[in-house]
## 1
Amino acid sequence: MSLVLCAASSAQEPGCLETSAMGKMARASTVASLKARKLKAGDSYRAQVIYAARMLEIAPSNKGAAELLLNRIPKGDDDPHQSVWLDFAELEQCPSGRVPDSDLAPLFRLQYHLPRLLARAVLLAPDHMLDYITYSEIALTPESDYALRMQKVCMREHREFIAALNKLPAKDIAWIGKEVINPESCKALYLPEQ
């Protein structure tokens, strides 16, 4: 009996409940169910990012979702929201680890698809190109295909890509051209680990 009470109380931890609600939102299969689950997940920064990313998966031409996602991109290494983009599940908020796999798996999948979704978003809303390019400094993790996805953006919106890149400080332009992508050929230089 005490084991059942322990499990029930762990499942009621606020962080576990929040992560579970985010997972349910990430696995929504229709716009209507996504909106309904968003009401239960709340309006936190993390909920907004997950909502916008999932909306783009469900409705790939939704410019509002694209802009919502792009407006949430962290603005540098010291942005407190950066951790959300690197870990949708934020399991440290749930010390007991009592989040069902059925809620965690969609969060991990959505996290993995984030580079593709951001590329889609910036193609729908190219006026956010500077934020998209700047985010590459944070997005390049060993498993990320962000630079590969950036190739398509660079090729399809080359003029906007170069114009946004030229707004950066010279050292950032040089770093991107050396580590991330060749802006002239649009060839990715950073490749994910296999």
## 2
Amino acid sequence: MKEESWSYRNYVPKAIPADLKELPEEDKHALIDNWADAVYTQNVQSRDDKLRNIRDLRRIHLGGVPVWIMDRFKEMIDHYVCGQWLSSIAIGGIIAEYLSFHLVEEYVKSNGIRRLIRHSRSLGNQKLRLKALRKLDILTEDELKKLDFIRETRNEYVHLNTIRTTEKKIKIDSLKVVGNLTEFLNEHTLSMS
């Protein structure tokens, strides 16, 4: 199979003046359209594709979720809807890792550090941190499986020695990450202090 030759130049940034007030609205729209054309990839979703992707999302009824997590969560689902599968997985992994640190911190605030010391070697590694949270009954078995699936999927796509390029599989895995995180946040009560 013949390798394709790629050349990429984007002149949009140079066409934008320092003072945006100088730019008429129609020029702003044209520049945004030019930008979209310049960064177009094979995963750009049509309007119908986006609607199908939205339809595929699980019911979201998050309550008591801090703003930082909610904003990242919205970014994650928007990236999924727009066909940005890899970044959706990566954001899901970031949220899951943040949650594990938060749960450890909340445990220490509520119960002290004594029981946690037994797991101190585990706290620097996400997989072991999740197992420690399970042993401390902070996570249920089902919650552990959801967060561990997100960790495994993130590792599968983010580490250079394991990056996958199959577009159909990455979309499916991205939706699973979104679903697992949605279910976790829907079911787990977070105390944010």
## 3
Amino acid sequence: MYSIEYFKYLFKSKKYLLLIIALVTLLNVFIDSKEASIVLQSLLSAGLLFVLPIMVFYYVHDKKAVDAFFSIPVSRKEMLITNMVFIVSTIAIPQLLSMIVYGIFKGISLGSVVLYCLEALLAICAIASFNSMLFLLANNIIDGIIVIGAYTFLPLSLLITLDTFLRTFVAGINSFKLSFIGYLSPIFMGFDVISEYLRKGQHFINHNIALIIVLIVSAVVLYRNYVNRKVERANTLTTKLATYPLIMTIYLFMVLLLLSTAYGFSYVGLDGTIHFIKDQIVLYIVLFAIFVSAYFIYKRQLSFNYKLPILFIVAALITLLFAQSAKTTRGFGLSDKYIKNEPHTQYSVNLWQDKNYGGSNNKVIDYFAKKLDYTPSYINVNVFVGVERTRVEISQKCLDFLEKTRLAAIDYYYSNDKDYSDSVGNMYVESKQNKDLETYSYTLKGVDLDELMSLVNEPYVTISVQTDKAEYSVDKNGELIVTYLYE
């Protein structure tokens, strides 16, 4: 199960690296700022989790070295276990030492320190197994590094793609619940453990379960790719489905999905689609060139396959159809999924107009000019409903008006003929019905100003007005009271 002699060999062959790790760890321990110490140690551990699997398993990709290593009187199973013990212990011992020192200086209870250390050890084991598995999926060192990098950045790329797509096609929502993507990134979950330790925060049970799953799956795949590995694979083309074919396809769809976010609401129907493709043709050509180049790297030769343009065209059409579906279904119905008529939500409506800028819509200026003894060149109207950071009961009259205004703003967002230069302002909503704060923002095409001003008689409603000459508050009779007069 484990070879002491082989472990001694690994220790001797990496003695200079181990010496550097020991020196850096000692320097970190004696840093005055213990928070900085543990952060620096965690960054060192993160780097080693990527470097050590490559350094320890490099020989499986070397034709001469793999014959020599696999011929020593140690079974492959023992070699694999010894390699992983060496990698994990090299990283875990300094990391856990820094966490223990931090816990002592901060007066954290022994039980908490032990529990966090166990979570950190689990994360180190999971990430080390995951990266080692990815490296062994390939057949040469370069491909192994590329595969590790591609899968490491995949969750972040997916997060950026989904967030951009949803912000484009879902009206109003400012924050999307995409935290589940974190479960696809072992390194992210590992840093969460350190972050919570520094904050003395909660323990993420779901993270631990996810890390256990990553560890088990990675260990099984790693075992099969090492113990049953054919030495003939060394330094050959990497052809496994989970490597280049899958990676190239996933990244292609993600980039095409990002491109489709430009397929906005001004492109309507078949003519609009054709016009969009013409507008973005250069980007599509550049992306196809990158896709083909990746294929050349994969094959290690300038060979062209007729399947490439077919796959690219099909992927482009699928993402455009997906974007079109998002437009026609109001963001797959997500725009209407907010909590309706929630009396504890805070609302703010901000209206502004400037005669010297913007479109031809001056209805807000014209409306308030009747209440003033002059026509302002610009005007800002700020309406706040609720009490900041406090949950209060908003009247039904306010809720009815705000819901009507909100629905009109969503309709405006999905209209094909909208012109934001004629908009009159924004509407902001903060809802804390659940544990997490949910925020929304909408562009307003128009507002019933009489109904808006009538809300001043409702509880928890404040209205203020600013013009080029003065600042005003609105009293219970709807009259503008000067609060500040500009010189």
